[in-house]
Write a structure and sequence with these properties.
With 119 residues, the chain is mainly alpha-helical. The protein has helices at residues 6-19, 30-44, 57-67, 88-101; strands at residues 3-5, 49-51.
Length: 119
């Protein structure tokens, strides 16, 4: 099961709140409503992970919009010690530098072609 953690759902909700705020301050836009429904069910059933492949279509699309844009303006790393406050690129560069300096890794790029097996 590919799981989406509840904190990622929360971050996606906050992304959509900023991207398309409520027109009247009360109602939710469709992507936000779909994510809020998933979030509410996760809280009700005390689950930390949602199965990525069983999300309702609207929620999956809204989550992918957030997840696919790690360079979005205002997105910062949280609860990660020295990485707090950095954007995705800064955090990745910082981690890479730490691993190289400690002799525990080296920068390498892997390219993979993937066949989705859709027929």
């Amino acid at each position: 099961m590919a799981g989406i953690h509840i904190t990622d759902i929360e971050a996606a909700i906050n992304h959509w709140r900023a991207k398309s705020p409520s027109p009247d301050g009360v109602s939710l836009t469709p992507p936000l409503r779909a994510l809020a429904e998933v979030y509410g069910l996760m809280v009700y059933y005390k689950q930390d992970l949602a199965d990525e492949f069983s999300l309702p279509l609207a929620a999956a699309e809204a989550w992918q919009d957030w997840y696919g844009d790690k360079t979005a303006e205002g997105m910062r790393v949280v609860n990660s010690g020295a990485l707090d406050g950095k954007n995705y690129a800064e955090a990745f560069a910082h981690l890479k530098r730490q691993l190289v300096d400690a002799g525990q890794g080296a920068h390498r790029v892997n390219f993979r072609l993937r066949d989705w097996g859709v027929s």
